[in-house]
Write a structure and sequence with these properties.
One of its GO terms (molecular function) is serine-type endopeptidase activity. This protein is an alpha+beta fold. It is built from 7 helices and 13 strands. Mean pLDDT is 72; it is low at 1-38, 70-86, 89-94, 103-109 and 358-370.
């Protein structure tokens, strides 16, 4: 038996050596090599090998095309969600706005917010304490623009150098990598003065959208919510008028949009302007307070609206008399009254900033070349 095994291995080796034998005539005459009597597999093997190679190439090409299509879809989606030159609206034209995790627990009488509102921003300065301290809220409306109250920034001496925007967290003590801190590159106050309590802040660089950082939708076609519509307001402001300690954890409270006439006492007995609105909880008298200014008042888009189920920025926390009053209700800037100004301003300023950056890059390149 052992002899047979040895013989088999020897014969196999000799056959292999025979097939690998190539003479000078084979090398110099390929046509003869294919029909060479000493290599009976030459023609068949060559044909089989060439066809296998073609099939393999086709398979690889198909796989590459599929991979390219998948990558194109992924990067296309990322590009849509990260675009700097689009301001999201509830029209659904911008897929990234108005999404948030499922609502958590239910700012005078408010409770801690257990889940982040992705568009909530803390504006911070270090004028008085020497360390970054919250002073107003703001809302993310695109990867490079924030919306806040005009009165929050009118008295800041050097806004673009002295404040930062902090986003991506519920806690002001959060030092995790998920928190994004961005400098302010430019401020734009509404030209109508104090009666239009809105302002835009252009960020020095784009924020990275994630589960905890994202834009809120803007109202469509100046559409405003009707009275009795439920909404939420969020902020890190003080809890009561007598307690001046701002909160570490973001708080949220559910309010109801009120008739304009309900706000007249807060507005010194005068009717509210079209650019104002009020909201309250007539049962608990929950309210916003100092430090909540500039923050968002949001509602869910209804089933008949262009993007049902998305969160829409209905108001910006503006002013009130005291906090949690039974008579004087909280007043908010009505965002729907400013959507055209917001779209026009952000488009113009974004284009100008892009051109400035490009010009600076060209100048720098020219100097390096010399």
């Amino acid at each position: 038996m052992e002899a047979m095994k040895t013989k088999g291995r020897t014969q196999g080796r000799n056959s292999t050596e025979l097939m690998m034998t190539v003479d000078v005539e084979t090398i110099t005459s390929p046509s003869k090599a294919r029909g060479k009597a000493g290599n009976p597999c030459a023609g068949a093997c060559s044909w089989l090998w060439s066809h296998q190679l073609i099939v393999a190439c086709i398979v690889i090409l198909c796989l590459l095309l599929v991979a390219a299509g998948v990558l194109a879809g992924v990067f296309g989606a990322l590009r849509a969600n990260m675009s700097d030159d689009k301001i999201p609206s509830a029209s659904g034209g911008f897929e990234g706005c108005g999404w948030r995790p499922e609502a958590g627990t239910r700012i005078v009488n408010g409770e801690k917010s257990t889940l982040a509102w992705p568009w909530q921003v803390s504006l911070q300065n270090k004028f008085h304490t020497g360390k970054w301290t919250h002073f107003c809220g703001a809302s993310i409306i695109s990867s490079t623009w924030l919306l806040t109250a005009r009165h929050c920034i009118t008295n800041v001496p050097n806004l673009t150098g002295d404040i930062i925007a902090v986003m991506g967290t519920n806690s002001l003590n959060d030092t995790s990598l998920a928190v994004q801190r961005v400098a302010i590159a430019e401020t734009v106050l509404h030209p109508d003065g104090e009666s239009s309590d809105v302002a835009l802040l252009r960020l020095a660089w784009s924020v990275a959208f994630s589960a905890t950082v994202g834009p809120v939708c803007l109202p469509v076609n100046a559409t405003t919510a009707k009275p009795d519509t439920p909404c939420f307001v969020t902020g890190w402001g003080v809890v009561t008028t007598n307690d001046k300690t701002k909160q570490v954890d973001l708080r949220e409270v559910k309010l109801t949009i009120m008739n304009d006439s309900s706000c007249e006492p807060t507005n010194s007995g005068r009717p509210l302007q079209r650019s104002m609105m009020c909201a309250a909880d007539v049962n608990t008298h929950a309210d916003t307070c100092q430090g909540d200014s500039g923050g968002p008042l949001v509602r869910l888009a209804g089933e008949t609206e262009p993007a049902p189920g998305r969160w829409v920025l209905e108001g910006i926390t503006s002013f009130g008399r005291g906090c949690g009053s039974r008579v004087f209700l909280g007043v908010y800037a009505r965002v729907a009254a400013f959507t055209q100004w917001i779209s026009r301003t952000t488009a113009t300023k974004t284009t100008a900033a892009t051109e400035t950056t490009a010009a600076a890059a060209t100048t720098t390149t020219g100097k390096s070349a010399r």
